[in-house]
Every structure is written in structure tokens, then in C-alpha cells.
Design a protein that fits this description.
Elements (H helix, E strand, L loop, with lengths): L1 H8 L5 H21 L1 E6 L4 H4 L5 E3 L1 H10 L4 E5 L2 H10 L4 E3 L15 H10 L5 E4 L4 H5 L3 E3 L4 H7 L4 E5 L2 H8 L5 E4 L12 H10 L4 E4 L5 H5 L3 E2 L2 H11 L3 E5 L3 H9 L4 E3 L13 H10 L8 H16 L1
Helix pairs in contact: 2-14, 4-5
Bound molecules: iron/sulfur cluster.
């Protein structure tokens, strides 16, 4: 079992690191069976989590859809807190655990439910479209949620001339360039994606001739403008699979490139590294401890959960 797993990740995990990971991986696989647990892992998890212990992997939209269908007693979210909340909302019967309660998100912490209520007073009648990277309390104040993969479709599905789009200013600016709907935005940002600059992209191109640049729409519009393609992590993975570029750089959290590189040994991945400190709080030892102790359980006030679920379900129906 271990040898087969290592064969999957050997391109990105050196043997010395594997020796450290192996006991935790074996324990986690056993504990998952004992606890009837399923691990959902975001694309930004490190390869030993993503490829060796996760049952379902993907971007936040995919994890939300799959969380709804999971039939296990326990869901462990290898991701950040808002993702665990979304899983709990969509699968309230399951016990949803997160290995580290401090695994937050700069976007989710940029806005509160009270902020949304104030915006509604300021812009009466304008629908509120909320990125899934928010707390359940913020989702509960919203009309509909969106992800980076479906934001334009969600906004245009409303059939209105103007929306409030929260909380990512760059995602809002990037979507505004693609749609005729007027967008009122908030001043939140992803601390990982906002670090990329147009000058970095030009340097990457100069140093890596022929490289195809794929950027996440949480990057600044100037960065997206310097790129060949912009899309969610799922859209980036699809681009690489379908088009098989000879050399590629993913302008996003750096574990993403490691995880896709495992699947495409013939593609040269250029890897500038911006790590998300929140995602990186999730480690194999913490996953093991979560399954051993069944902590930390994520709960949501039922009244908040009911309203937040509506916003997420409206998105899933689009
Ligand atoms: S990468 Fe950015 S958006 Fe994603 S969890 Fe980290 S801070 Fe939040």
C-alpha cells in the first residue's frame, strides 16, 4: 500500500520526507475506516495529503457539491474553516471536523454579517452575491453565493443591472471586466494572490521561454492581464489536462502546482512559491490527531445555517 502511494508522489516528495510521512499516512488510512470518516481536501493541500489520504479533492465548489453527497459519519475538512462550515451546512447529519481551528482565510476575516447589513442599508434592493470564502454568518446575510469558477454565471443569472459582490475586490474587478452587470465591491483580498505582480509575470516569461501563464482570478486585474488564462483552481487543472502545455506556471498557491505535476510528468511546471499560511496549518499529524480524538467539531447556529444554506443552494442550482 505504502509503496503504491509513494509511487504516486515520488516526483514531489523526497524519500527522506516520505519516511516521516509514512507512519501518519498508515494511521490515518486505518482511522478513516474505524471512524467511518471521509477526508475532503482542497487543491492547496500538500501532495502527501492530497494524493495519499484524501478521499475527495478539488476546489471549494467541488468540495461543497461532494460534501452534500457524503454518507460517512465523519467529514474531515483538509482545508480552511469556511470550507468546513460549508460542508456542515450541506451535510448537517455528519460530524464535520477541522484539524486546526486557526485555519482561517484573509478573505473570510475581511467582512462580518454586520457589514453586510450596513451595505444593504446603503444600497437598498441591490442583491448581495457572496464569494464562498466567507463565514456562515456572512453567507446567511446574502442572496446567493458564488465561487471563482462560477461568479460571472451566478451574477448574470440574477437578471439585474447591479449587484453587491463580496468580499474580494480583485475577483469583483476581474468579473466586472467580463460582464455588463455593475458591481459594487468590498475591500477584501486574498493575502496569497495579491502578492503576485505584473513585473513577476514578465520576469517569469523572460526566464522561462514559452511558458504558459495561468492565473487565479483572486489576483489583481493587472496580473490577470499579463496572463494567458484566468480561472479557478479547477479550471487551471482542466486547462493543463486538456491542452498539455510544454511548460506552465500556475499563479496561485504553490501546492497546487505540486499536486497537478504528479499527474503530468511530461509537463515542466515553473514554481514561484506563495504559500497560504492558513492552508498550511493542515498537516498529516493534525489530521491523525483529529481522527483519533474526533476534534475539532465545526458547529453552526441552526438559524444561521438555514439561511446560509439557502444562499449556497441557490448557487449550486445555477
Ligand atoms: S489562499 Fe487566499 S483565499 Fe485561499 S484560504 Fe488562503 S488566504 Fe483564503
Amino acid at each position: 500500500m505504502s509503496a503504491a502511494l509513494y509511487a504516486k508522489v515520488r516526483r514531489v516528495v523526497p524519500p527522506m520526507e516520505w519516511a516521516v510521512f509514512e507512519p501518519d499516512i498508515e494511521a490515518i488510512l486505518r482511522l478513516k475506516r474505524d471512524r467511518n470518516a471521509v477526508i475532503l481536501a482542497h487543491n492547496y493541500m500538500t501532495p502527501e495529503i492530497f494524493h495519499c489520504v484524501a478521499d475527495i479533492v478539488g476546489d471549494s465548489l467541488h468540495l461543497a457539491r461532494e460534501a452534500q453527497r457524503v454518507q460517512a459519519d465523519v467529514i474531515v475538512m483538509a482545508g480552511v474553516h469556511f470550507m468546513a462550515e460549508t460542508a456542515k451546512m450541506l451535510n448537517p447529519q455528519a460530524s464535520v471536523l477541522i484539524p486546526d481551528l486557526e485555519a482561517g482565510c484573509s478573505l473570510a476575516s475581511s467582512i462580518t454579517a454586520a457589514d453586510v447589513r450596513l451595505l444593504r442599508l446603503r444600497y437598498p434592493g441591490v442583491p448581495v452575491v457572496t464569494y464562498v470564502n466567507t463565514s456562515a454568518a456572512v453567507k446567511a446575510e446574502s442572496d446567493i453565493c458564488c465561487t471563482s469558477g462560477n461568479a460571472r454565471r451566478v451574477i448574470e443569472s440574477l437578471g439585474v443591472p447591479e449587484v453587491i459582490m463580496l468580499p474580494d475586490r480583485y475577483l469583483a474587478a476581474n468579473v466586472a471586466r467580463e460582464t455588463g452587470v455593475k458591481i459594487i465591491s468590498w475591500a477584501g483580498s486574498c493575502e496569497v494572490h495579491e502578492r503576485f505582480t505584473p513585473a513577476q509575470i514578465r520576469t517569469l516569461r523572460a526566464e522561462n521561454p514559452g511558458v504558459v501563464v495561468l492565473a487565479h482570478p483572486e489576483c489583481k486585474p493587472e496580473v490577470v492581464a499579463e496572463s494567458d488564462f484566468a480561472g479557478s483552481t479547477a479550471a487551471m487543472a482542466e486547462y493543463v489536462t486538456d491542452r498539455q502545455p510544454g511548460r506552465v506556471v500556475l499563479i496561485t498557491e504553490c501546492s497546487m502546482a505540486d499536486n497537478i505535476a504528479v499527474l503530468h510528468p511530461d509537463i515542466d511546471f515553473v514554481r514561484p512559491c506563495n504559500l497560504c499560511p492558513h492552508m498550511k496549518r493542515i498537516t498529516l499529524p493534525k489530521l491523525r490527531a483529529t481522527l483519533e480524538t474526533l476534534t475539532h467539531e465545526v458547529t453552526i447556529d441552526p438559524a444561521v445555517a438555514d439561511r446560509a444554506r439557502l444562499a449556497v443552494e441557490r448557487m449550486l442550482a445555477v
